């Protein structure tokens, strides 16, 4: 069953592109968190999504939000992608697909190219108490999350 608004978010710990562990618990101890799941680095819509987030990073910071983005790509692929796109937030590797599965954000069979086990494009706002305040899981990988609704959810969170 998918995670719902008002539920406790599933805890996770993943590696970032600097090979350091990042946990949801640590993130929510200091800020609200925007978790963006994205299918694959270096693809058109994913690049658009993450660059849009990069361009709005000051708005997220003013809303006391830390942004992290998660995909099933390796931390090495994500490191190159982060560097090329100059992304100022952590990209986390869910190479083993455990977190994507917990968040109901995994295509067992991706609609394109016959790939199996690709992350679904999804967005979650998690407050400082670890409660989900916004959840959007997109079936269509060509669509972007509703960034306006993400920011509205953050505005309702405790700063």
From TrEMBL:
Residues 3-159 form the Thioredoxin domain. Coiled coil: none annotated. The active site is at residue 46. PROSITE patterns: THIOREDOXIN_2. GO terms for molecular function: antioxidant activity; oxidoreductase activity. The keyword Iron does not apply. Transmembrane segments: none annotated. Keywords: Oxidoreductase, Redox-active center. The keyword Ligase does not apply. It comes from the Eukaryota. PANTHER family: THIOL PEROXIDASE (PTHR43110:SF1). This is Thioredoxin domain-containing protein.
């Amino acid at each position: 069953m998918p995670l719902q608004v008002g539920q406790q978010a599933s805890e996770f710990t993943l590696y970032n592109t600097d090979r350091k562990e990042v946990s949801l618990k640590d993130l929510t101890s200091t800020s609200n968190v925007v978790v963006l799941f994205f299918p694959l680095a270096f693809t058109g819509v994913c690049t658009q999504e993450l660059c849009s987030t990069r361009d709005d990073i000051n708005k997220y910071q003013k809303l006391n939000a830390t942004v992290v983005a998660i995909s099933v790509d390796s931390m090495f692929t994500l490191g190159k992608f982060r560097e090329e796109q100059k992304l100022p937030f952590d990209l986390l590797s869910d190479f083993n697909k455990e977190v994507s599965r917990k968040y109901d954000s995994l295509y067992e069979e991706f609609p394109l190219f016959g790939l199996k086990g690709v992350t679904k494009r999804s967005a979650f706002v998690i407050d400082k108490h670890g409660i989900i305040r916004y959840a959007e899981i997109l079936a269509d990988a060509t669509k972007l999350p509703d960034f306006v609704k993400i920011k509205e959810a953050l505005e309702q969170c405790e700063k």
